[in-house]
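Module 6 notes. Inverse folding takes a fixed backbone as the condition and produces residue identities as the prediction. Think of it as a translation problem where the source language is geometry and the target language is the twenty amino acids. Below is one complete input and output pair. Work through it position by position during the lab.
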């Protein structure tokens, strides 16, 4: 599968809807959308940022906790790499196109907080409860 073939407009829409429902304090709708996200990511590949065939880990929070950046499409990946270059994080970064269960062992790591979707735009963390 080529980078240009990856599009995930549904996931982007779900993320936007979660933010909208968050502004309305509609927890019931957020839970329903999170289930939609969980179902979606089980079936659809995303672009996962890797270095030396391992997921890129971005420090987040305390105690060596981290997130792994993923991207919904080519445009978001390009913007993410620009973000990485601004923060001198772009060296040796590559990508793979896989479903998020590709790195199954991440979920078992207590320091792994989730996948950070589209780091340079409206980003969203797919936390481990959705994996």
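Target side of the pair, the amino acids:
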């Amino acid at each position: 599968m080529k980078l240009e073939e990856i599009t995930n407009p549904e996931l982007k829409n779900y993320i936007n809807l979660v933010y909208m429902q968050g502004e309305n304090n509609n927890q019931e709708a957020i839970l329903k959308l999170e289930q939609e996200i969980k179902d979606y990511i089980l079936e659809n590949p995303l672009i996962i940022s890797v270095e030396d065939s391992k997921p890129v880990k971005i420090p987040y929070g305390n105690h060596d906790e981290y997130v792994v950046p993923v991207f919904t499409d080519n445009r978001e990946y390009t913007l993410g790499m620009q973000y990485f270059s601004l923060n001198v994080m772009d060296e040796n970064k590559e990508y793979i196109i896989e479903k998020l269960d590709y790195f199954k062992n991440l979920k078992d790591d207590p320091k792994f907080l989730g996948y950070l979707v589209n780091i340079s735009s409206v980003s969203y963390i797919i936390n481990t409860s959705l994996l």
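Reference fact for the lab report: The two ends are 23 Å apart (CA to CA).
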